[in-house]
Amino acid sequence: MNIFYILTLSVILIGLFGIIVKKDLILIFINLGVFQEGIVLFFVLLAYDENSPIIITHLQGYADPLIHSFLLTVIVIGFANLALMLVFAMILSSKFKTLEVDEIEKKVKKQ
């Protein structure tokens, strides 16, 4: 197995572990970004192929640009989602005076 696949899998698992374990909303959002970038890295690794068809013959390696354009769209959408989640976190923190998920759930159940 290639070392890049192992590193990519470790980035994905670190992000997933942080999403599951952390209780602070901001840390969950950061780990969600790490998880998403791990997925993007995985697809970049999948896009690389030494035998891809290309007209220029002197190139050694080639990556499919179609997949990279999709991944650029994924990155932009992920940034927009992160901005929206931060707005929701601001609303929740102003209403409940905390960013801890457990505290917010307790206060919502009381209402």
Summarize the topology:
Elements: H1 3-21, H2 25-47, E1 48-49, E2 62-63, H3 65-96, H4 101-110
Q: Would you give an account of this structure?
A:
There is one protein chain. The protein has one domain: Helix Hairpins (Orthogonal Bundle), CATH 1.10.287. The longest helix is centred in the last third of the chain and has 32 residues, at 65-96. The protein is mainly alpha-helical. The chain has a two-stranded antiparallel ribbon. It is built from four helices and two strands. Helix 1 (3-21) packs antiparallel against helix 2 and helix 2 (25-47) packs antiparallel against helix 3.
Task: Report the C-alpha radius of gyration, rounded.
Answer: 19 Å
Q: How many separate helices?
A: 4
- Reported by name, the CATH topology is Helix Hairpins
- What kind of sheet is the major sheet? 2 strands, antiparallel
Index terms:
single chain, 4% strand, 111 residues, elongated, Helix Hairpins, mainly alpha, 2 strands, two-stranded antiparallel ribbon
Quickly describe the structure.
This protein is mainly alpha-helical and 111 residues long. It contains 4 helices and 2 strands, in the order ααββαα.
